[in-house]
């Protein structure tokens, strides 16, 4: 079997769509479940600033990249900018429900502050690791309808759309890394990649745990019973963390590439599921974007 790489016929399409304008989400918009809702709310708070960081990390290596990769970086940036816009709008819904997200935003700022002054290649390695996380979560979110079952249509549609585009551009940061480190030895490349992923994994889980606990605390839910419910949600049912464990581990194997698993079929599935939830003007833009 040949070495895995980004499919030659892959097209990364920024879909300029909007969700939930002029509508009010319920406080527990996902199946009236405070635990599930807290997971997605806490994750969403990280996206605007986090995705801006991803864009800058990848753009730092755009000059001199092969034309195809440079075009994919441009499309990646456009997708991420639109994602940020939609999550800013979604986060307003979170705040409108009475949640104070100041602490969550401070945690994001503190995490990003740790990247200041680091070499651009270190920021790219962190972005590559986090993009693997988003691709894993995106695959599972679309492949297993249980995750968003019972969710309000506009919110669930937002997450499916975001997941579809994360799948579509999942190889961009990795291909940028391969180009930027083309003169490194395989051992050095693997060692740095693996170390950064281990650190990123720890910080990712710690950050999401703290964010969920803070939102649940504001709902008056604290203590060991809540911790047990969080663990069951992550590792039991629906078990997102448990189900992505194998794909997470594959990142450390020789010859890994995000497109070893060609799951583009999920993009079409997500679009067929969420299209009816789009605002009318956004639906027309989707048709124009996807031809």
Q: What top-tier CATH class fits best? A: Mainly Alpha
Helix content: 55-70%
Shape: globular
Q: What are the segments in which pLDDT stays under 50 over at least 5 consecutive residues?
A: none
Report the CATH topology name: Ferritin
Average pLDDT metric: 93
Query: What structural class do you assign from the helix and strand content?
Result: mainly alpha
Instruction: Compute the number of structural domains.
Output: 1
The largest sheet, given as strand count, sense and whether it forms a barrel, is: none
Assigned CATH architecture:
Up-down Bundle
* Ends apart, CA distance between termini: 33 Å
Query: Quick one: how many beta strands?
Result: 0
Give the amount of beta strand, in percent. Answer: under 5%
- What Rg, in angstroms, do the CA atoms define? 19 Å
Please tally the helical runs, counting DSSP H or I stretches of 4 or more residues.
Answer: 12
The SSE order reads HHHHHHHHHHHH
Protein name: Metal-dependent hydrolase
InterPro entries: UCP07580
Organism: Sphingomonas abaci
Q: Descriptors for this entry?
A:
291 residues; Ferritin; single chain; 0% strand
In short:
With 291 residues, the chain is mainly alpha-helical. It has a single domain (34-278), classed as Ferritin (Up-down Bundle), CATH 1.20.1260. Helix content is 66%, strand content 0%.
């Amino acid at each position: 079997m040949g070495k895995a790489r980004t499919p030659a016929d892959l097209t990364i399409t920024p879909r300029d769509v909007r969700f939930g304008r002029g509508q009010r989400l319920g406080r527990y918009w996902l199946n009236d479940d405070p635990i599930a809702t807290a997971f997605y709310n806490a994750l969403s708070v990280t996206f605007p600033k986090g995705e801006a960081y991803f864009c800058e990390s990848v753009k730092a290596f755009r000059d001199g990249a092969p034309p195809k990769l440079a075009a994919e970086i441009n499309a990646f940036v456009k997708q991420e900018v639109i994602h940020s816009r939609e999550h800013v709008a979604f986060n307003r819904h979170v705040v409108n429900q009475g949640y104070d997200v100041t602490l969550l935003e401070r945690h994001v700022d503190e995490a990003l502050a740790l990247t200041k002054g680091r070499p651009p290649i270190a920021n790219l390695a962190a972005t590559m690791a986090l993009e693997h996380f988003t691709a894993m979560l995106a695959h599972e979110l679309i492949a297993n309808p249980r995750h968003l079952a019972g969710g309000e249509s506009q919110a669930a549609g937002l997450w499916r759309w975001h997941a579809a585009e994360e799948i579509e551009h999942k190889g961009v940061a990795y291909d940028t890394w391969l180009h930027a480190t083309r003169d490194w030895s395989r051992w050095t490349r693997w060692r740095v990649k693996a170390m950064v992923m281990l650190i990123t994994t720890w910080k990712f889980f710690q950050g999401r745990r703290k964010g969920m606990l803070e939102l649940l605390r504001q709902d008056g839910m604290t203590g060991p019973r809540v911790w047990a419910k969080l663990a069951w949600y992550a590792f039991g049912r629906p078990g997102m963390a448990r189900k992505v464990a194998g794909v997470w581990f594959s990142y450390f194997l020789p010859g890994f590439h995000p497109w070893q698993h060609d799951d583009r079929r999920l993009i079409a599935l997500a679009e067929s599921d969420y299209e009816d939830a789009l605002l009318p003007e956004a639906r027309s833009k989707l048709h124009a974007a996807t031809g």
